[in-house]
């Protein structure tokens, strides 16, 4: 079967009949651009491929998409590129059309300047009251269904924390509102199990390729007992967590382990 070439659309002209607009029927990835290059693009591309496969999209021509994207960001010095792919227009109700025509929407925005401060000073987390649901069919994927994160961000807006630690309805630690979690205890690295909830981030995958990071079902008691804790995503990199609620962590120790986890960056 011939791969489908994606037309990159202007995000100001999304059809009101688009399935991404109506049902969240799609997926996305967000990446850092430096000097015209998309960092960790092979991992972002693989994320798109896995979403395509698990959500039963037709096979997309990701080689063609890559070529178009590289042209799109060629003049960017430091920016954020976001690629949204929807199933396109059509179908009756929730049922997808037989002849699916997926659409790609690309935006390039300025890079968030506060991430540099977070890198240097660490971040303070509250504990979100909003809990993530359990859905193994979607767990790990970065789909367009992000209402849980919208509710969590609304919580953060009303407190003094910079982000929030997020648990699922089973009481397991999953992530923050925008990042994955990596923790250190006795020289061993751990990250929460994401088979029921959460998003498997590109930067976590990158670090897992160069480190042994054990996947565990992590409780609040577990994370409080860690020697150091980090949050990470492909934009901010690896950021030390200085506190979770009233539990504080040693940033000097965290910086030591950060160099161990990602030596090429420090």
TrEMBL record:
Family matches, as InterPro entries: Aminodeoxychorismate_lyase_IV, Aminotrans_IV, Aminotransferase-like, BCAT-like_C, BCAT-like_N, Class-IV_PLP-Dep_Aminotrnsfr
One term of GO molecular function: 4-amino-4-deoxychorismate lyase activity
GO-annotated biological processes: 4-aminobenzoate biosynthetic process; folic acid biosynthetic process
The keyword Transcription regulation belongs to this UniProt entry's keyword annotation: no
Pathway field: Cofactor biosynthesis; tetrahydrofolate biosynthesis; 4-aminobenzoate from chorismate: step 2/2
Cofactor: pyridoxal 5'-phosphate
SUPFAM superfamilies membership: D-aminoacid aminotransferase-like PLP-dependent enzymes
PANTHER family membership: AMINO-ACID AMINOTRANSFERASE, AMINODEOXYCHORISMATE LYASE
Family: Belongs to the class-IV pyridoxal-phosphate-dependent aminotransferase family.
Name the UniProt record assigns to this protein: Aminodeoxychorismate lyase
